[in-house]
Amino acid sequence: MATAAAQARDSCAGLGYAAQAMAPLSHQAHKAIALLAAIAALASCALEPKAVQWERDFYWTERLSMDGQNDLAAKRFAALRRSAVDPRDADEAALLECETQARGDQVAAGAACYDQLGISAVGRPMRVRALLHAGELRYYQLGMREAALKLWKALVVRAPDQPGALRALDHLYLHGDLEAGHREAMVQDLLAFEAAEPASELADNLLLRVAMLLEHDGRPAQLQQAAQLLERHERDHKEDASLVDALMTRARIYRALGNFKLEARDLERMVQTYETSYVFASYAYDAHKPAAARLIELYLGPLHDLARAEFHARNLPEMLRRPLNMPRYLLALAEIQEQRGNRLEALATYQEVLRFITWRNKDFRANDQRICDEEPQDAERQRCHQQLKEWSTDVEPKEAGQARGQIARLEAELRRPDLRQPRTLKQGDGR
């Protein structure tokens, strides 16, 4: 906030340093440049006290706002807006003037203030932000819903490249979702916006929000239309950030339609999609976890593909990075391995369940010891360690008993021959 004033102060210091650095140069041209730099430095430094005072006033007015003195803060921000040298500082003060008015008892005045800022602000992002807030006040506090909806629709159509437009779209979606009577009209409006500008910054989110509204309708025809829209979403916007949400939504829709094969296709795409960071790494979306768990359920059930079920059961624990319910996932993996006839692998996985529980309990005890060691008083530390001794017995989850039972069963089966299989006679053995 108030960045322009700070930049003025920094530039003053920089020009002064440049003037000092160039002054010793002997060449006549360099002396002239040094003189010009010195004049510019002096001119900017003359403004520095006023800029610094403006920053101080801005800071203290923010403090008033945080303390709940909204009426006084609004008046102070108005004065700062009028006295600002840089138009960007004036817009920042005006934004907070509107905000503090709305937080006080002047909601209508705050909305009007935002309207004015939406016209007068020098930066387009600030204008969009102000109009977004004006719509929010009218919709949620003043009861002027039609005016707010009209304003948000204008932002979606006229400023689709601005972050405020995406938030306006979310407000439109919630309006259509919460009030069933408005859902169909909102679907038609959003589809019209997308058809008018299919390559806009918001086109992918428009398709996604329409599909979600149709999904909430729940009728088969609407679900089928939503699935078709999301098929187009992936085809036209496969590089956009909304792809993951679109895949999960489409998988839910195909599940509701009973098309488990297409549901599994979308969940597989979801699991294979990673979010890339700029720090030499990538990481999974939160939606990967339920997607992988649902794939295991599908492949064990209606799709009956034990190989794919084992693949996802094997990767889910790694995806979750040793979670609290790791034993449950390992038990599921062992059961799948046994169904596929890999009893030795299943035995090893059941044993891994016990090893994980032992490691986790050891880690818990070490953490408890660290907590006790951090107690400031000797008496408190001793009392804490005494309690740990009394609680020394590890609490095992039910999966530990299940794993032990399965290990005992498998070890007994692997020790004795399987009487259901024919014996293989060695050559020359006549028995």
Task: Describe this entry's structure for a reader.
This protein is mostly helical and 431 residues long. Among the domains are: 164-194 and 202-234 and 245-257; 259-321; 348-416, no CATH class. It is built from 19 helices and 2 strands. A two-stranded antiparallel sheet has the order 1-2. β1 (275-276) and β2 (282-283) form a beta hairpin. α2 (28-66) runs antiparallel to α3 (70-83) and α13 packs antiparallel against α14 (288-300). The radius of gyration is 33 Å and the shape is flat.
Short descriptors:
mainly alpha; two-stranded antiparallel sheet
What is this structure, in a nutshell?
77% of the residues lie in helices and 1% in strands. It is an all-alpha fold and 431 residues long.
Describe how the helices and strands are arranged:
Layout: H1 3-22, H2 28-66, H3 70-83, H4 87-103, H5 107-120, H6 124-140, H7 145-158, H8 163-178, H9 180-196, H10 203-217, H11 220-236, H12 243-257, H13 260-272, E1 275-276, E2 282-283, H14 288-300, H15 306-320, H16 326-339, H17 343-373, H18 378-390, H19 398-415
Helix pairs in contact: 1-2, 2-3, 3-4, 4-5, 5-6, 6-7, 6-8, 7-8, 8-9, 8-10, 9-10, 10-11, 10-12, 11-12, 12-13, 13-14, 14-15, 15-16, 16-17, 17-18, 17-19
- For the terminal residues, how far apart are their CA atoms? 94 Å
Strand adjacency order, main sheet? 1-2
Average pLDDT works out at 83
What proportion strand? under 5%
* Contiguous helical run count: 19
Query: Low-confidence parts, pLDDT < 50 over ≥5 residues?
Result: 13-26
How helical, in percent, are the residues?
A: over 70%
**H/E element string?**
HHHHHHHHHHHHHEEHHHHHH
Structure classification = mainly alpha
The shape is flat
Largest sheet: 2 strands, antiparallel
